[in-house]
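Exam revision sheet. Question 4 asks you to relate a sequence to its structure. Input first:
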Amino acid sequence: MSFEPFKIPCVILSGGKSQRMGEDKALLPFSSSNSLIEFQYTRLKPHFNDIYISSKIDKFSFLSDKSKIIFDENKDIYSPILALKTILDKFDEVFIITVDTPFIKLETIEKLINSSKSYDITIAKTPNKTHNLCGVFKKSCLENIKQMIENNIHKINYLIKNSNFKELEFLNEDEFLNINNQLEYEKAIKIII
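Answer key, C-alpha coordinates:
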Protein backbone atom coordinates (compact mmCIF):
# COMPACT_ATOMS: atom_id res chain seq x y z
CA MET A 1 0.00 0.00 0.00
CA SER A 2 1.48 3.38 -0.97
CA PHE A 3 0.75 6.55 0.97
CA GLU A 4 0.80 10.21 0.09
CA PRO A 5 2.63 11.94 2.95
CA PHE A 6 0.20 13.11 5.62
CA LYS A 7 -0.34 16.87 5.54
CA ILE A 8 -0.44 17.34 9.31
CA PRO A 9 2.85 17.21 11.20
CA CYS A 10 3.84 14.27 13.37
CA VAL A 11 5.44 14.75 16.79
CA ILE A 12 7.09 11.82 18.54
CA LEU A 13 7.00 12.24 22.32
CA SER A 14 10.40 11.34 23.75
CA GLY A 15 10.73 13.38 26.92
CA GLY A 16 9.62 10.92 29.57
CA LYS A 17 11.51 9.66 32.61
CA SER A 18 11.60 5.96 31.56
CA GLN A 19 11.33 5.09 35.27
CA ARG A 20 10.07 1.54 34.77
CA MET A 21 12.83 0.82 32.23
CA GLY A 22 15.57 2.14 34.53
CA GLU A 23 17.31 3.89 31.62
CA ASP A 24 16.23 6.15 28.76
CA LYS A 25 14.20 3.80 26.56
CA ALA A 26 14.41 6.22 23.61
CA LEU A 27 18.13 5.47 23.43
CA LEU A 28 17.90 1.66 23.58
CA PRO A 29 19.08 -0.13 20.41
CA PHE A 30 16.17 -1.26 18.25
CA SER A 31 16.10 -3.33 15.05
CA SER A 32 18.85 -2.08 12.71
CA SER A 33 18.78 1.40 14.32
CA ASN A 34 21.11 2.65 17.03
CA SER A 35 18.12 3.68 19.14
CA LEU A 36 14.36 3.32 19.48
CA ILE A 37 13.89 7.03 18.72
CA GLU A 38 15.99 6.77 15.55
CA PHE A 39 13.91 3.73 14.48
CA GLN A 40 10.60 5.51 15.11
CA TYR A 41 11.71 8.76 13.45
CA THR A 42 13.19 7.01 10.38
CA ARG A 43 10.13 4.76 10.03
CA LEU A 44 7.62 7.64 10.09
CA LYS A 45 9.60 10.40 8.32
CA PRO A 46 8.75 9.37 4.71
CA HIS A 47 5.03 9.42 5.55
CA PHE A 48 4.71 12.95 6.94
CA ASN A 49 5.53 16.28 5.29
CA ASP A 50 6.91 17.38 8.68
CA ILE A 51 8.09 15.29 11.61
CA TYR A 52 9.43 16.45 14.97
CA ILE A 53 10.60 15.05 18.29
CA SER A 54 9.39 16.46 21.61
CA SER A 55 12.04 16.25 24.32
CA LYS A 56 13.55 18.04 27.30
CA ILE A 57 17.09 17.82 25.90
CA ASP A 58 18.89 17.07 22.63
CA LYS A 59 19.89 13.42 22.96
CA PHE A 60 19.57 12.64 19.25
CA SER A 61 22.97 12.14 17.62
CA PHE A 62 21.32 10.78 14.44
CA LEU A 63 19.35 14.01 13.89
CA SER A 64 21.32 16.56 11.88
CA ASP A 65 18.47 19.10 11.66
CA LYS A 66 18.08 20.24 15.27
CA SER A 67 15.10 22.45 14.31
CA LYS A 68 13.13 19.17 14.33
CA ILE A 69 13.33 19.07 18.15
CA ILE A 70 10.52 20.73 20.10
CA PHE A 71 11.89 21.38 23.56
CA ASP A 72 9.54 21.11 26.54
CA GLU A 73 9.18 24.49 28.23
CA ASN A 74 9.51 23.04 31.73
CA LYS A 75 12.62 20.91 32.28
CA ASP A 76 11.71 19.81 35.82
CA ILE A 77 8.17 18.44 35.46
CA TYR A 78 7.61 15.32 33.37
CA SER A 79 4.13 15.69 31.91
CA PRO A 80 2.62 15.01 28.49
CA ILE A 81 0.32 17.97 29.16
CA LEU A 82 3.31 20.35 29.23
CA ALA A 83 4.66 18.77 26.05
CA LEU A 84 1.25 19.16 24.36
CA LYS A 85 1.10 22.83 25.33
CA THR A 86 4.46 23.50 23.69
CA ILE A 87 3.47 21.49 20.61
CA LEU A 88 0.04 23.13 20.19
CA ASP A 89 1.56 26.58 20.62
CA LYS A 90 3.38 25.73 17.38
CA PHE A 91 0.78 23.77 15.36
CA ASP A 92 -2.96 23.96 14.64
CA GLU A 93 -3.25 20.18 14.54
CA VAL A 94 -0.74 17.39 14.95
CA PHE A 95 -0.45 13.62 14.99
CA ILE A 96 1.03 12.56 18.33
CA ILE A 97 2.78 9.22 18.88
CA THR A 98 5.12 8.07 21.62
CA VAL A 99 8.65 6.83 21.05
CA ASP A 100 7.80 3.53 22.74
CA THR A 101 5.03 2.39 20.34
CA PRO A 102 7.05 1.28 17.28
CA PHE A 103 4.46 -1.04 15.72
CA ILE A 104 1.59 1.35 14.96
CA LYS A 105 0.70 0.80 11.30
CA LEU A 106 0.39 3.51 8.66
CA GLU A 107 -3.17 2.34 7.97
CA THR A 108 -4.00 3.00 11.62
CA ILE A 109 -2.44 6.47 11.49
CA GLU A 110 -4.38 7.21 8.30
CA LYS A 111 -7.69 6.15 9.92
CA LEU A 112 -7.01 8.33 12.95
CA ILE A 113 -6.17 11.37 10.81
CA ASN A 114 -9.14 10.83 8.47
CA SER A 115 -11.55 10.45 11.40
CA SER A 116 -10.36 13.58 13.23
CA LYS A 117 -12.15 16.29 11.23
CA SER A 118 -14.92 17.12 13.74
CA TYR A 119 -13.00 16.53 16.97
CA ASP A 120 -10.45 18.31 19.16
CA ILE A 121 -8.82 14.98 19.98
CA THR A 122 -9.03 11.64 18.13
CA ILE A 123 -7.24 8.73 19.78
CA ALA A 124 -6.86 4.98 19.34
CA LYS A 125 -8.58 2.40 21.52
CA THR A 126 -8.15 -1.37 21.63
CA PRO A 127 -10.34 -3.87 23.52
CA ASN A 128 -8.11 -3.71 26.63
CA LYS A 129 -6.84 -0.12 26.63
CA THR A 130 -7.30 3.45 25.47
CA HIS A 131 -4.14 4.86 23.86
CA ASN A 132 -4.25 8.49 24.99
CA LEU A 133 -1.04 9.50 23.22
CA CYS A 134 -1.68 7.99 19.81
CA GLY A 135 -3.85 10.28 17.75
CA VAL A 136 -4.67 13.73 16.48
CA PHE A 137 -4.67 16.76 18.78
CA LYS A 138 -5.85 20.24 17.73
CA LYS A 139 -5.10 23.75 18.92
CA SER A 140 -8.77 24.02 19.97
CA CYS A 141 -7.87 22.16 23.20
CA LEU A 142 -5.03 24.57 24.07
CA GLU A 143 -7.17 26.67 26.44
CA ASN A 144 -8.14 23.51 28.36
CA ILE A 145 -4.45 22.60 28.58
CA LYS A 146 -3.47 26.04 29.90
CA GLN A 147 -6.25 25.85 32.51
CA MET A 148 -5.08 22.39 33.56
CA ILE A 149 -1.48 23.59 33.97
CA GLU A 150 -2.69 26.55 36.01
CA ASN A 151 -4.60 24.12 38.26
CA ASN A 152 -1.67 21.66 38.39
CA ILE A 153 -3.64 18.92 36.61
CA HIS A 154 -1.34 16.78 34.46
CA LYS A 155 -3.52 13.78 33.59
CA ILE A 156 -3.92 13.31 29.82
CA ASN A 157 -7.18 11.45 30.45
CA TYR A 158 -8.59 14.56 32.15
CA LEU A 159 -7.86 16.61 29.02
CA ILE A 160 -9.48 14.03 26.76
CA LYS A 161 -12.63 13.64 28.83
CA ASN A 162 -13.02 17.45 28.97
CA SER A 163 -12.63 17.90 25.21
CA ASN A 164 -14.66 17.07 22.11
CA PHE A 165 -13.00 13.69 21.55
CA LYS A 166 -13.41 10.48 19.59
CA GLU A 167 -11.99 7.06 20.39
CA LEU A 168 -11.39 4.97 17.28
CA GLU A 169 -11.50 1.23 17.88
CA PHE A 170 -8.73 -1.10 16.68
CA LEU A 171 -8.61 -4.83 17.45
CA ASN A 172 -4.88 -5.68 17.36
CA GLU A 173 -3.43 -5.17 20.86
CA ASP A 174 0.10 -6.11 19.68
CA GLU A 175 0.16 -3.19 17.24
CA PHE A 176 -0.06 -0.90 20.27
CA LEU A 177 2.61 -2.68 22.32
CA ASN A 178 4.08 -0.05 24.62
CA ILE A 179 7.72 -0.57 25.64
CA ASN A 180 7.81 0.47 29.30
CA ASN A 181 10.03 -2.14 30.92
CA GLN A 182 12.70 -4.73 30.15
CA LEU A 183 10.20 -7.55 29.49
CA GLU A 184 8.24 -5.44 26.97
CA TYR A 185 11.51 -4.37 25.34
CA GLU A 186 12.57 -8.02 24.95
CA LYS A 187 9.14 -8.90 23.50
CA ALA A 188 9.40 -6.02 21.01
CA ILE A 189 12.91 -7.08 19.96
CA LYS A 190 11.55 -10.58 19.17
CA ILE A 191 8.66 -9.14 17.14
CA ILE A 192 10.90 -6.85 15.07
CA ILE A 193 13.36 -9.62 14.06
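Marking note for examiners. Residues 72 and 82 are 7 Å apart (CA to CA).
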